[in-house]
User: Fold this.
Amino acid sequence: MYQERLKIDWWTVGLWCFLVIFGWLNIYAATYNGDHAGVFDMTTFHGKQLLWIAGAALIALVVMFTEPRVFSNTAYIIYGVVLALLVVTLFIAVTSHGGKSWIDLGFFRLQPSEFAKFATALALAKYMSAIDVKWSDMHTKVVSLFIIVVPMGLVFLQHDTGSALVFLAFVLPLYREGLSGAILIIGLAAIALFVLALLVNKYILIGVLALLAVGYLFVWLNKRSTRDWVRTLAVFVCCAAFIFSVDFVFNHVLEAHQSERINVLLGKSEDLQGAGYNVHQSKIAIGSGGFFGKGFLRGTVTKADFVPEQHTDFIFCTVGEEWGWLGSSILVAAYVWLLVRLVFMAERQRSRFARFYGYSVASILFIHLFVNVGMVLGLVPVIGIPLPFFSYGGSSLIAFTILLFIFIRQDASKNQLL
Assistant:
């Protein structure tokens, strides 16, 4: 067996350190009051977060000293254990903010849905590396879909829609491995049709689609066969059926508060004391920060607790108020740099398992960043997912740390011949 010295990507480790430390400072600022000024006061959110950071760092160290093939060899076992936890959660979970996704262990509340993300990434990477993938083979598509949908469905049953939607991120690494781009186009088209069906009269929308179908057949295609007619008609019928199903989904599948948040985002209603309150106050906090911000611990909106969940899902508005546009830009730039490095690292992997897992890590972090910052700025509906490594929470910090450092460990040994 030949081994060479491990080459750890210290830039990625450094970005992790920056995000968790800067995150802790903002948790401290968001929850600060004169009665609990002590940094190590374990009765406060910032004190507890410091404990989670220490625990996450210790776990990261353990991961770095673990043989990389251990993760691929135990991928299905880890996946199965997490699925079992998700099932158990449905029966013994503690209800919080309308969701049933927490297991109360007394000293710690465990959220298995956070760990399901890296477990699914490991299982998918294992499956994709164990076979000669042919996307023309239906078996490959079905198994890949099964690995994603099972944990996604269990999380959805916990009424944690935000975390469930994060599993859609796995479409991106599958696309990198050869999944047809038509899947991405269909997904984006479905989102566009859903929004348009809420804003535009459905019969007008279907009429426009009919005109597009006719234009496609008689203008775009030079030669039209029976197959073209049948295919175009089938797509049109599917789109029409989807449009008419939007109201049912909106009113009977989504929770009432979720539907109202979408209405607020689309401008169909304005509820500044209800569904739109968080985003409205968040915008005020961010806007008041200006270019340089008000300064650390000087945020007036932050100190007045106008923004609920400001230390968790809405922590980005604390950055905007106290650190301003400059601090917010630095934070976003750090995340973008991390994502770029992860993609670069994924491309240089010699094993398919490591490459696919690396893309999964980047995709999960991207979805979290996009949705969290987007909902704080009022660009996407509020669905309640944390900012990775930054928001308060032991489960999310530890799970994201495991997710990232497994890949750092894979990358460190990419040149070893075992």
Q: What stands out?
A: The longest helix spans residues 315-347. DSSP finds 17 helices and three strands in the chain. The longest strand covers residues 99-104.
